[in-house]
Amino acid sequence: MKDQTKIIAALLVGAAAGAAIGLLLAPESGSELREDIADYVNDLVEKTKDKAKVTADDVKEYSTTLVDKAKTKFNGVLGTLSDYKDEAEGKIDQAKAYAGDAYEEGKSKFKGEADDLNSTVQNA
After folding, report:
1. Residue 33: which of 19, 18, 14 has the closest Cα?
2. In the chain, pLDDT over 70 holds for what percent of residues?
3. Rounded to whole angstroms, how far apart are CA atoms 113 and 118?
4. Is the pTM of this model over 0.90?
């Protein structure tokens, strides 16, 4: 974008210099010549302002589009993270249930073995 700006600036300066030289060499009176130069410079300034406004609008539109794309990607990543979180929570719940079942099964086996050992000791 900097190269385009430099080219546009160089063209405008060149056009202004060429026009000024052309007007200076034209066979007109001083006041007419100054008026023509002033008109040309004013037109050039207006065209430059218009071009600057168009460029600023283009930059604004581009930045808005870029921000929208970034928001969309960010929201997609958040959605994916949320899915992973939900999946992890489900696996944690499964692990808790498995651990609880294993504990109860171990407790039951231990109690059964303890009861068997107690019976054996009392019958001996």
Report:
1. 19
2. 90
3. 8
4. no
Q: What CA–CA distance (Å, rounded) separates 51 from 45?
A: 10
pLDDT band at 124 (very low <50, low <70, confident <90, very high): low
Tell how far CA 101 is from the center of its chain.
Answer: 48
* Amino acid occupying residue 15: A
List CB contacts of 24: < 8 A, sequence separation 6 or more: 33
Give per-residue pLDDT as tens, 38-74: 888 888 889 888 988 998 999 999 999 999 999 999 9
Give exposure, 11-21, as e/b (b: 16+ Cβ within 10 Å). Answer: eeeeebeebee
Helix (H, G, I), strand (E, B) or coil at 26: coil
For tokens 């009392």, name the residue.
122
